[in-house]
């Protein structure tokens, strides 16, 4: 049975990339708590919202948005706040871990990579602060990854953004803590979303990764839900500026 966090009932929650992969599991998990959910993503999520309404009796607000377009992202957050009240839980989840080598990166590719994996995180945080301040506080959860902790090769632009997210979260936690706005990072391990399975999961790669985990089970999107709910809720009211790792124990062993 999933954990229940009564203080999340009717909370106004905004998630980037909330209609697929980990984001879809988060949307479902928050809806199960009775929250008011709004989420953005580029692809159409109407069918997903239909499913969520059938399962939970509560329809999430889907707002089409390319998060690299900052004015459009801010407008989506304003629309969510107008419908659900000031956003008190922000989950920056959307990212793109496209593989690339250092030598093939151009300035244009670098800027594109950061425009998805780092820049919108900052400006979503910035835009959420005023509403959280008015509401008397809030919780921001910024998704990072263990990839930068491990020094993984194969996507240096992405790992740079992940490390930046961790540093940004610590600085914002210090800046806005006096206003009861908490900012934490969450670093998943290799979560086997459908995208990961389609693009990069092979029996050999998965076996090698499981060998590095202390816990030998595969990590599913649903395994990330309760940690996020915990960080969103008052159960973690004295946690801020932290990086919560959910990876089966990979970074323990390196």
Molecular structure report:
It is a single chain. The protein has 254 residues and is α/β, with parallel strands linked by helices. The protein has a single domain (8-247), classed as Rossmann fold. Helix content is 45%, strand content 15%. It is built from ten helices and seven strands. It has helices spanning 21-32, 46-56, 70-84, 107-117, 119-135, 156-176, 194-199, 203-212, 225-232, 250-253, and strands at residues 12-16, 36-41, 61-64, 89-92, 138-143, 181-188, 243-246. The chain has a seven-stranded parallel β-sheet, sandwiched between helices. Helix 6 (156-176) links the parallel strand 5 and strand 6 (181-188). Helix 1 (21-32) crosses helix 9 (225-232), helix 3 packs parallel to helix 5 (119-135) and helix 4 crosses helix 6. It starts with 11 loop residues before the first strand and ends with a helix.
- The CATH class assignment is Alpha Beta
CATH architecture descriptor text: 3-Layer(aba) Sandwich
Q: Which percent range describes the beta-strand content? A: 5-15%
The CATH superfamily is identified as: NAD(P)-binding Rossmann-like Domain
The end-to-end distance, rounded to whole angstroms, is 31 Å
Structural class: alpha/beta
Radius of gyration (CA) equals: 17 Å
Largest sheet: 7 strands, parallel
Please indicate the count of domains: 1
Strand order of the largest sheet: 3-2-1-4-5-6-7
* Molecular shape: globular
How many DSSP helices? Answer: 10
* Proportion in helices: 40-55%
**Average pLDDT over all residues:** 96
- SSE topology string: EHEHEHEHHEHEHHHEH
Q: Number of DSSP strands?
A: 7
- Write the CATH fold name: Rossmann fold
Low-confidence stretches: none
């Amino acid at each position: 049975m999933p954990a229940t966090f009564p203080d999340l009932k009717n909370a106004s929650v905004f998630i980037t990339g909330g209609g697929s992969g980990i984001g879809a599991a988060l949307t479902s998990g928050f809806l199960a708590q009775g929250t008011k959910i709004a989420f953005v993503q580029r692809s159409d999520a109407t069918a997903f919202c239909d499913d969520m309404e059938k399962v939970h009796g509560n329809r999430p607000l889907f707002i089409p948005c390319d998060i690299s377009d900052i004015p459009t992202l801010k407008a989506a957050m304003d629309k969510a706040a107008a419908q659900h009240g000031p956003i008190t839980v922000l989950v920056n989840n959307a990212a793109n871990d496209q593989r690339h080598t250092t030598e093939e990166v151009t300035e244009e590719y670098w800027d594109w990579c950061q425009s998805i994996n780092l820049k919108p995180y900052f400006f979503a945080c910035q835009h959420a602060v005023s509403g959280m301040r008015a509401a008397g506080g809030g919780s921001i959860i910024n998704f990072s990854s263990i990839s930068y902790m491990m020094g993984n090769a194969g996507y240096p632009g992405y790992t740079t953004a992940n490390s930046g997210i961790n540093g940004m979260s610590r600085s914002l936690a210090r800046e806005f803590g006096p206003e009861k706005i908490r900012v934490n990072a969450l670093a998943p391990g290799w979560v086997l979303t459908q995208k990961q399975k389609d693009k990069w999961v092979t029996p050999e790669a998965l076996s090698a990764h499981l060998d590095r985990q202390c816990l030998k089970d595969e990590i599913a999107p649903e395994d990330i839900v309760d940690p996020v709910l915990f960080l969103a809720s008052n159960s973690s009211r004295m946690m801020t500026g932290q990086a919560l790792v959910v990876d089966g124990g990979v970074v323990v062993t390196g």
